[in-house]
Design a protein that fits this description.
Oligomer: single chain
CATH architecture of the largest domain: 2-Layer Sandwich
Order of helices and strands: HHHHHEHEHHEHEEEEH
Distance between the termini: 59 Å
Mean pLDDT: 77
CATH class of the largest domain: Alpha Beta
CATH topology of the largest domain: Endonuclease, Chain A
Length: about 260
């Protein structure tokens, strides 16, 4: 069970997530906690003047989270709109952010390929946890627009992907989407992957047997992603200089692999 304080904090965090001001957030959480009360009592509770309270109510009305004018004509009490409406607003925002993120991810490789970094510092992101890592892997392979070089433990990374992998793998293998090269640790699982997924658009080679490790990296456009599956986590580095270095290492190892 949640305590009253935890519930109040959750409501406060929710309305702040919608971009509400401090005054709006305080008014909404206080009104939810108190229920229907008079305007004067609400002003006393918040230690505000009545004009300040009415201003905050009008701000909430603009967000659709309060409706002072719809009170019954002779009602002496006021309460903000139900928290279920707040949840609906948050859900709509999350859906909008998700669509925007997918759209940006779709053009990100193009942006990175044309971006001249100069002396700017690299952008480094860390993705932690099995679920977050799975979502990240699914997304970057589904929106891939530039050729990919993958090095390391293919079976382990594939193990984190969703069932969408088969569709993505077929697109790579056929060469309909983009081309990819995979340089994998020499073991039974990766040898099976080589036989199963090699095709015009997906070349697979195995490293020498004495090269064994449990991490991987992925290169596309100006981004290198280092996978550490044991934890699991990924570190994505957007840096053209580091990418060039890693691509050079990959190409040299590719030449020597079978």
């Amino acid at each position: 069970m949640y305590t009253a304080e935890e519930l109040t904090q959750s409501v406060y965090n929710g309305i702040k997530e919608l971009g509400a001001s401090e005054s709006e957030a305080r008014l909404y959480t206080s009104s939810v906690r108190l229920g229907p009360v008079s305007i004067s009592k609400l002003a006393v509770e918040l230690k505000w003047s009545r004009p300040k309270l009415y201003t905050a109510i009008r701000e909430l009305e603009r967000r659709g989270l309060a409706d002072l004018k719809d009170r019954r004509k002779f009602s002496r009490s006021f309460v903000v709109s139900s928290p279920s409406l707040l949840i609906d607003r948050l859900r709509l925002k999350m859906e909008s952010v998700s669509k925007t993120e997918d759209a940006v991810m779709g053009i990100l490789p193009n942006l990175l390929a044309s971006y001249q970094q100069g002396e700017n510092l690299p952008l480094v992101r860390m993705i932690e946890g099995r679920r977050n890592l799975r979502d990240y892997i699914d997304r970057i392979y589904n929106v891939a627009k530039y050729d990919i070089s993958f090095f390391g433990c293919g079976a382990e990374v594939i193990g984190l992907m969703s069932h969408a992998f088969e569709v993505v793998a077929e697109e790579f293998r056929s060469g309909k989407k983009i081309k990819a090269r995979a340089l994998l640790v020499a073991n039974q699982e990766n040898a099976a992957l080589k036989e199963l997924y090699s095709g015009p658009g997906l070349q697979v080679k195995l490293l020498h047997k004495d090269m064994t490790f449990t991490s991987s990296f992925h290169i596309s456009a100006h981004t290198v992603v280092f996978w550490q599956i044991a934890t699991p986590l990924a570190i994505a580095v957007d840096d053209q200089h580091i990418t060039m270095m890693m691509q050079s290492i990959f190409d040299k190892l590719w030449e020597k692999a079978s």
